[in-house]
From TrEMBL:
UniProt-listed InterPro entries: AMP-binding_CS (IPR020845), AMP-dep_synth/lig_dom (IPR000873), ANL_N_sf (IPR042099), Chloroplast_AMP-bd_Enzymes (IPR052987)
Superkingdom field: Bacteria
Single biological process term from Gene Ontology: fatty acid elongation
Organism whose genome encodes this protein: Aphanothece sacrum FPU1
PROSITE patterns: AMP_BINDING
Annotated ranges, domain AMP-dependent synthetase/ligase: 20-452
Coiled coil: none
GO MF entries: long-chain fatty acid [acyl-carrier-protein] ligase activity
One Pfam family here: AMP-binding
UniProt keywords, alphabetically: Ligase
UniProt-recorded name of the protein: Long-chain-fatty-acid CoA ligase
Length: 638
């Protein structure tokens, strides 16, 4: 691993790449196998392209502290534009090319951008009318398409800019670590997005400290699937590349194939991604013979007990911190007794699962939401090392993370270096004792400078002592691990005054093979309800075992017709109700108010495309509620 000390004296992100180019000149830095033609850039080639891009911008008038909007998606050219613009002295505001045109227009205006770097002509046309209203002086296409010469705003394509840069020398811009590096706009699950101002110091904190979580080696392969502009993927990419890793771009369509082909060592993702991988494996199990399924289930049941006893013995079980030494000794004995069967299961079943995902994983990091218990358990059983991290856009983002040596499932781990966590009463803001649940406050080098041009919102988010209000609820274990229990604003308050955190219950429910997605509802009602996207594949298989001929409607079937379909036959409804009851009651910390009394089925999955999830696959709860308000009302009025 490259010594972090090599980056200890630099003041800006863009200084990393000259160091990396000298240390790993012939190592592949960026690899895009799905581009036509395929793209591979060594660290030496990457730095040369960064210099050309930056010099081209400077020739075209870009100066220190200019704002550049970068509206594009994952590719080597995205990275070149991102770090090339910083090398030129500018700060950038980033967003996906797939974002809604009104959202892009808002970012262009709010960020005071003079320059627009955009994915291609198609994206430019999407926001063309807004460009005329904004004082843009320059547009750069990241494609090689021919710009519209009639456009009154100077427009160049990627190749034209790079040729211009090759003919001119880069003027090195000295940056202060407190200078603005980027504006990352919050996902906007409610209201207008806010631009989180992240300085070079904020982002360098991640480069200098994420080795406490991931310990990569030069040439290690990392698969990139999350949006590069998002703070989570972005900071991890900066860190891994600073260590001489090779970043390989993938996408949802090619993800499973790329796992087998490129055999990555490291990857970061969101819970939905790990759930998708898990469900694919479960689907293969369901297609095996009944005898094979029983064998697999036997080994998983044994291993479930094995990992629990092992956690207890090693003091890594969230629910067993206060037990006696004798109970830990008993857990050690039970671990030893079950070990041979677990190892046999590993040889016959789990090794095949690891091979199917490349067989080389050293670290998977899950973030951007809670990881359901059954997923945490599954990946531990099959020995695919999943760590969970925590943070927000406003904290650059990582503040806490589990590690290989201290991996307490159900937690988000201990704070990374230079980070403090405080749990306070949501109303009084007074600190709470260890173990008590309250509002999570964060203080550290990675906390943003504030929200761009929004001093009131900044003052509300960061108090006079530098504590950032995360908006999350949680508690601290005796070993200083953070356990997140939900979002303060997501809390459902029943009419009996009981507060319900939906996420843990939803995580429990999707353990059922028949439930693909779920969102709890019930604000001001007597009991909880749920909107459920069922797994039709699994339901059809179940129907065959019950000798039921089930015909399910298509995704675009009107909701009133779904109501009269086989999905609402009594056997299917009874099955789903049994699944909900079982999974909710088996959840640690179950209370009677957690029971889901009513549910409705919808066939259109929650997704980024239909506006019901953010780019990092978090539910936009207010928007889902608004879209299905009539159905929710009917659920409780029937």
């Amino acid at each position: 691993m490259t010594s972090i000390a090599e980056y200890s004296t630099i003041n800006s992100l863009s200084e990393i790449w000259a160091i990396a180019a000298k240390k790993f000149p012939d190592t592949i830095a960026l690899h895009d196998p799905h581009n036509k033609p395929e793209v591979k850039l060594t660290f030496a080639q990457l730095y040369q392209k960064l210099e050309q891009f930056a010099a081209g911008l400077q020739v075209l008038g870009v100066t220190k502290d200019d704002k550049i909007s970068l509206i594009a998606d994952n590719s080597p050219r995205w990275f070149i534009a991102d770090q090339g613009s910083m090398l030129a002295g500018a700060a950038n505001a980033v967003r996906s090319a797939q974002a809604d045109h009104n959202e892009i227009a808002y970012i262009l205006r709010d960020s005071d951008s003079r320059i627009l770097i955009v994915e291609n002509l198609k994206t430019l046309e999407k926001i063309r009318t807004f460009c005329d209203e904004i004082p843009l002086q320059l547009i750069i296409l990241l494609s090689d398409e021919t710009p519209n010469q009639q456009d009154y705003i100077k427009t160049l394509n990627y190749t034209e800019l790079m040729e211009l840069g090759a003919k001119n020398n880069l003027q090195i811009i000295q940056k202060d670590s407190q200078d603005l590096a980027t504006l990352i706009y919050t996902s906007g699950t409610t209201g207008q997005p806010k631009g989180a101002m992240l300085s070079h110091k904020n982002l360098l904190h991640q480069v200098r400290n994420l080795d406490s979580v991931i310990e990569p080696k030069t040439g290690d392969r990392a698969l990139s699937i999350l949006p590069s502009w998002h703070s989570y993927e972005r900071s991890i990419e900066y860190f891994l590349l600073s260590q001489g890793c090779t970043l390989i771009y993938t996408n949802i369509r090619n993800f499973k194939t790329d796992l087998k082909q490129f055999k990555p060592h490291h990857m970061v993702g969101v819970p939905r991604l790990w759930d998708s991988l898990y469900e694919g494996i479960q689907k293969q199990f369901r297609e095996q013979s009944p005898t094979q399924q029983k064998i697999v289930q036997f080994f998983f049941n044994v291993s479930q007990n094995y990992i629990l006893f092992r956690r207890i013995a090693n003091n890594l079980s969230l629910g067993h911190f206060n037990i006696s030494g004798f109970e830990r000794f008993l857990a050690s004995l039970k671990t030893a007794l079950l070990a041979p069967l677990h190892q046999l299961g590993d040889k016959l079943v789990y090794q095949k699962i690891r091979d199917a995902v490349g067989g080389k994983f050293e670290t998977l990091v899950s973030g951007g939401g809670s990881l359901a218990k059954h997923l945490d358990d599954f990946y531990e059983i099959v020995n695919i090392p999943v760590l969970v991290g925590y943070g927000l856009t406003e904290t650059s983002p990582v503040t806490n993370a589990r590690t290989h040596s201290h991996n307490i499932r159900g937690s988000s781990g201990q704070p990374v270096p230079e980070t403090e966590i405080s749990i306070v009463d949501p109303d009084t803001r007074q600190p709470l004792p260890q173990g008590k649940r309250g509002l999570v406050l964060i203080r550290g080098t990675q906390v943003m400078q504030g929200y761009y041009k929004k001093p009131e919102a900044t003052a509300k988010a960061i108090n006079a002592d530098g504590w950032f209000d995360s908006g999350d609820l949680g508690w601290i274990t005796p070993m200083n691990d953070l356990v997140i229990t939900g979002r303060a604003k997501d809390t459902i308050v029943l009419n009996n005054g009981e507060n319900i955190e939906p996420q843990p219950i939803e995580d429990a429910c999707i353990r059922s093979p028949y439930i693909d997605q779920i969102m709890l509802v019930g604000q001001d009602q007597k009991a909880l309800g749920a909107l459920i996207v069922p797994n039709l594949d699994a339901l059809e298989k179940w129907g065959q075992t019950q000798q039921l001929t089930l015909k399910f409607p298509s995704q675009d079937t009107p909701q009133d017709e779904i109501k009269t379909s086989d999905l609402y036959q009594k056997p299917v409804q009874d099955l789903l109700r049994q699944e909900l009851n079982r999974e909710v009651k088996n959840r640690p910390g179950y209370r009677p108010d957690d029971q889901i009394k009513a549910f409705e089925l919808i066939l259109e999955p929650f997704s980024v495309e239909n506006g019901l999830m953010t780019q990092t696959l978090k539910l936009k709860r207010p928007i889902v509620t608004e879209r299905y308000q009539v159905m929710i009302n009917g659920m409780f009025n029937s």
